[in-house]
Write a structure and sequence with these properties.
Layout lengths: L3 H8 L14 H6 L6 H28 L4 H11 L3 H21 L3 H11 L7 H11 L4 H23 L4 H22 L12 H10 L10
């Protein structure tokens, strides 16, 4: 499995994509004191994995692996990510991943995606940038999905440890619990259809929209 070390680098929390600057909506719940401890964040994280990550990012990765049109999938992500901050976060982290990937994991498909972005025909979303790199490395779809979902969960949990705040051990307990949710999400994504794309819980989206006007915040989204 020659891709294993490359996949670890691609999903490492030290990869400078800017994930540390995004809460993807959980900070709104923290500000409202709905999420204030380990248990509360665990509930939010489970919902986020089973909804937002599964029905948007995860499904986009699967469709690309199955031969979906990159330009079309990029447009679908832009249309389905209704909260502006989350849409912008996906693009900001995606553009950084495209830049890093172009230097560290170059491929013809990645170069094509970068050309679409530079030509204004695509935005450059993070899950698609990840999928392009992972597929070019020969990472099987189930492993790519699990790695992407868990890397996102890890970044969010690290951010929650700082923001709520939680202890470091609490963060590790949350990650262990989330591993089961990620495994279930990978299985769920395999059975979703194009009609499922973008179907998420309204409460999560509303919190992401409210974050834009939150009086004080630590995160960009």
């Amino acid at each position: 499995m020659t891709y294993q070390l490359a996949l670890q680098q691609l999903t490492d929390s030290a990869l400078p994509t800017g994930a540390f600057a995004h809460s993807l909506g959980f900070e709104t719940y923290v500000d409202a004191r709905v999420v204030s401890d380990e248990a509360g964040f665990g509930v939010w994280l489970g919902s986020f994995i089973s909804q937002s990550l599964s029905y948007s990012d995860g499904l986009a990765i699967r469709f690309l692996y199955e031969g979906g049109d990159l330009e079309e999938l990029d447009a679908l992500l832009s249309a389905s990510l209704l909260p502006r901050q989350v849409r912008e976060a996906s693009v900001k982290m995606g553009l950084r991943l495209l830049e890093i990937g172009g230097e560290v994991f170059p491929s013809d498909e990645l170069a094509s995606y970068r050309e679409l972005v530079s030509g204004g025909r695509a935005a450059g979303h993070q899950p698609l940038a990840f999928a392009v790199v992972a597929r070019s490395l020969g990472v099987p779809l189930p492993e790519a999905l699990a790695a992407y979902l868990f890397a996102t969960v890890t970044s969010l949990t690290q951010n929650a440890v700082r923001a709520i705040p939680l202890g470091q051990n609490a963060g590790q307990r949350l990650l262990r619990q989330a591993a089961d949710d990620v495994a279930a999400a990978v299985e769920r994504i395999a059975h979703l259809t194009p009609d499922d794309f973008g179907a998420v819980t309204p409460g999560l989206e509303i919190s992401q929209m409210r974050h834009e006007r939150q009086r004080a915040r630590m995160f960009m989204s």
